[in-house]
Design a protein that fits this description.
The chain is of the alpha+beta class and about 140 residues long. It has a single domain (about 20-140), classed as 2-Layer Sandwich (Ribosomal Protein S5, domain 2). About 35% of the residues lie in helices and about 30% in strands. The protein is built from four helices and five strands. The protein has helices spanning about 45-60, 60-65, 95-105, 125-140; strands at about 20-30, 35-40, 65-75, 80-85, 110-115. It has a five-stranded antiparallel beta sheet with strand order 1-2-5-3-4, with helices on both faces. Helix 3 (about 95-105) packs parallel to helix 4. The chain starts with about 20 loop residues before the first strand and ends with a helix.
Length: about 140
């Protein structure tokens, strides 16, 4: 493809494909007794996001967790991308997850980072842990 000086292309093609419809890594990070788990789902519309999240929290492991923060990116038929985030009480965690999805340039994926909180304050390290959990997930899935 040839572009003129004032033209450019946004690379929105999949650079990453999940190995299955649901991928889970439990206790991917443990920091001062807080445990982080990452779960990823293939999603193609918002209704799937709702169903898969509902199924996830029906599992007692996730239902009892302190926070199930998530973000998703879904590509539409017109090539636009819908993005959303949910902190689930872990302020700014959803945005951290969304930024990692954007950095990886992935679409049609919902990434959930679950935290079991053990009453030891992590302060800003909680953001680092959420981001690192996402990065470790992508590294593991590329192998």
């Amino acid at each position: 493809m040839v572009f003129n000086d004032n033209q450019f292309s946004l690379d929105i093609w999949w650079t990453f494909i999940l190995s299955s419809d649901r991928v889970e890594y439990r206790d991917i990070i443990i920091d001062r007794k807080s445990k982080y788990t990452v779960v990823a789902f293939k999603v193609t519309d918002i209704d799937q996001v709702k169903v898969k999240f509902k199924d996830l929290v029906s599992d007692s492991y996730f239902r009892k967790a302190s926070h199930n923060s998530y973000s998703y990116r879904i590509i539409q038929k017109n090539w636009s991308v819908i993005e959303w985030k949910n902190d689930d009480g872990e302020q700014w965690a959803g945005m951290c997850i969304l930024r990692e999805l954007q950095r990886e340039n992935v679409t049609n994926i919902m990434l959930v980072v679950t935290r079991y909180f053990w009453w030891i304050q992590l302060h800003a390290d909680r953001f680092k842990n959420v981001i690192d959990a996402c990065k470790i997930f992508f590294e593991k899935e590329r192998q």
